[in-house]
């Protein structure tokens, strides 16, 4: 696949190895461009979009998106890792008036064990209807049920009417359940919780899989409609463009 990539613009340096351990293996910036391409294909990135990236990590998607947004477009990234946010601010050469990175000091067993606030109590630091497109890429796979409900409500609040959401999950549909039962998936989901399974009971937010019916229900409860679901390749024999399942939605 040929990637959409701006000419004559070198990529930023790679994040340090000890940071990359938390975001997964692979060609770091290439995966970012591939992800941006897929977002564009499934929800259409417009030059004037105001984009919210919840769980922005080390800017792997922020950097490719910066080449697609026009002068009136903007990007806001949010993450619970202070180190990730500081790295983005120092190393991504982006206009700070249009590309901002925000740290949320939230407790999570995977990324911020000493956070001062529970994620299910958090209010995003933006007014209502601030964004046209919300991204939650490899975010919902690290949220427990109450936190996930809260994040979806905040995403809905900060999206304008008709705004889009691109999110990824491990969905326990029939193929997902079969893949888990085979023992060949990573993460290996073996610990039952309400509406899903955990990978590691000692680090609950390390990996969470959910029943798709429940995901559709809480989207609806939050005021978001699911418009399409695309299967991920994590299900061992499934074909797909993304490792995780993609859930596309819209704010009603």
Account of the protein in words:
By secondary structure, this protein is of the alpha/beta class. It has one domain: Rossmann fold (3-Layer(aba) Sandwich), CATH 3.40.50. 27% of the residues lie in helices and 22% in strands. It has seven helices and ten strands. The strands form two sheets. The protein has a seven-stranded mixed sheet with strand order 3-2-1-4-5-10-9, with helices on both faces. Strands 6-7-8 form a three-stranded antiparallel sheet. Helix 4 links the parallel strand 2 and strand 3 (99-103). Helix 5 (145-158) crosses helix 7 (212-222). The radius of gyration is 17 Å and the shape is globular. The model has no long low-confidence stretch (mean pLDDT 94).
State the shape.
Answer: globular
Biggest sheet: strand arrangement: 3-2-1-4-5-10-9
* Topology pattern, helix = H, strand = E: HHEHEHEEHEHEEEHEE
CATH topology: Rossmann fold
Q: What is the name of the CATH class? A: Alpha Beta
User: How far apart, in Å, are the first and last alpha carbons?
Assistant: 34 Å
Share of residues in helices: 25-40%
Low-confidence stretches: none
User: Can you count the beta strands?
Assistant: 10
Report the major sheet. Answer: 7 strands, mixed
Q: Which architecture per CATH?
A: 3-Layer(aba) Sandwich
Number of helices: 7
What average pLDDT do the residues reach? 94
CATH superfamily: Vaccinia Virus protein VP39
Q: What share of the residues does DSSP label as strand, in percent?
A: 15-25%
| Count of the domains | 1
Radius of gyration: 17 Å
């Amino acid at each position: 696949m040929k990637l959409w990539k701006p000419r004559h613009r070198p990529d930023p340096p790679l994040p340090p190895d000890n940071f990359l351990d938390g975001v997964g293996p692979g060609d770091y910036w290439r995966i970012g461009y591939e992800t941006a391409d897929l977002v564009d294909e499934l929800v259409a990135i417009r030059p004037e979009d105001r984009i919210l990236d919840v769980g922005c990590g080390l800017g792997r998607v922020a950097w490719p998106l910066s080449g697609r947004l026009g002068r009136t477009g903007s990007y806001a990234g949010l993450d619970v890792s202070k180190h990730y946010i500081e790295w983005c601010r120092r190393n991504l050469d982006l206009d700070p008036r249009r590309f901002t990175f925000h740290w949320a000091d939230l407790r999570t067993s995977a990324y911020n064990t000493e956070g001062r606030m529970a994620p299910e109590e958090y209010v995003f630091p933006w007014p209502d209807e601030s964004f046209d497109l919300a991204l939650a890429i490899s975010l919902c796979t690290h949220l427990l049920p109450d936190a996930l409900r809260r994040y979806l409500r905040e995403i809905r609040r900060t999206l304008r009417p008709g705004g889009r959401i691109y999110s990824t999950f491990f969905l326990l549909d029939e193929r997902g359940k079969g893949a888990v039962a085979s023992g060949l998936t990573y993460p290996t989901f073996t610990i039952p919780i309400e509406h899903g399974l955990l990978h590691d009971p000692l680090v609950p937010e390390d990996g969470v899989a959910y029943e798709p019916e429940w995901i559709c229900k809480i989207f609806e409860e939050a005021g978001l409609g699911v418009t399409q679901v695309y299967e991920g390749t994590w299900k061992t024999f499934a074909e797909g463009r993304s490792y995780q399942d993609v859930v596309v939605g819209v704010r009603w």
